[in-house]
Automatic annotation (TrEMBL):
Region (Disordered): 129-154
Protein name (Swiss-Prot/TrEMBL): Cilia and flagella associated protein 161
Segments crossing the lipid bilayer: 6-26
Keyword 4Fe-4S recorded: no
GO BP term (any one): cilium assembly
Amino acid sequence: YLMSLSTVWNLCYGFCMCSFSLYLASDHKSFIRFAKKSYLQQVFLTNELSYLTCWQATFLDPQLRLEYEGFPVPANSKMIITHCHTNRSLAVPRNFWTRSYFGKEYEVICHTYLDSHKAEEDKNYWEIVTGNPSDKDGTMIHRPNPQPRRDQKE
């Protein structure tokens, strides 16, 4: 389990060689502060820990959110990451991208995309993937599902 659903946490990018950490932050959109491609609320990295860097994991199903509040979030499960200051969800709209040395990079923004039933779209779904301990560079997504042993009685 990674964290509790009601726990407010900071998304931190710590580097081994550096003596500082970078935190994922966001603030309200203004005339001079917005995302470069989509013109929505921007997401940026900062080295200052503040309320702009507070995020909360929310259960995927809106009907069960109150029931699962305070429960631990299982690793490798889909969730919605919501910014505490603006109450908007972290999103990746796949129609805004740029080319870089690493290939095609999509813009990460803070915007809640809702469908006709007022539920979040898949642009707001996130999954924190843990490493696979049996493989050097693998993740738990690449691990096959366990098969029942043949000598066990059903």
